[in-house]
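Our preliminary data section would be incomplete without showing what the modeling component actually yields. Below, a chain of 204 amino acids is followed by its predicted structure, encoded as tokens that our downstream tools consume directly.
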Amino acid sequence: MRNEKLGRLIKVSLLIVIGFLLMYIELPVPLFPEFLKIDISDLPALLGAFALGPVEGVIIQLFKNILHGIFATKTAFVGELANFLVGSVMVLVAGYVYKKNKSRRSAFIGLALGTIFMSIAAGVLNIYLLLPLYQKVLHIPIEDFVSMAHKVNPSITNINGFILWSIVPFNIIKGIFVSCITMGTYKKISPILHKDENEKGFVN
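Predicted structure:
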């Protein structure tokens, strides 16, 4: 039992470090403001949620952002808070669905639902928490975000348009991107994550 707990701790720690390192790799997305960039740092948390459980997935999300906040933040932890809250919604939903029925189909459904819930959460959190925090902590007016988005999409003229045509579709694209990588890698990675355990991934 003690060895099993130690093994899980090592796996979680390794996934945290990988997630932290992946946060340095960001890809711009055409037709979106330059401050919205895709990274795949949610991948280790999703792999952890599938292999170890949704709670472990959220823990991976939390500590990768704490590490990034300590060593590399450019947003006084606001960006890290956003990454944690939004990403954790997808990780928690996908991990919970997969935990109920461990099969490729449930993994696909979990990731699809996770993407939807993450995109909705991103919109709500940006309106009521994240954008006001950027304004308060970093002194970036919300209007500046709208203005930057307007430059690439002239139909965006207010905060509601910014959420509807930038934040939500960006997170849908990000969710699909990360989901595809997760589906493509989990079967190969799961034997390592399940080493010394009876359980295996995508059993059906």
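The beta strands are 27-28, 37-38. Helices lie at 2-22, 42-51, 54-71, 78-100, 104-137, 142-152, 159-193. Preliminary results of this kind motivate Aim 1 of the renewal.
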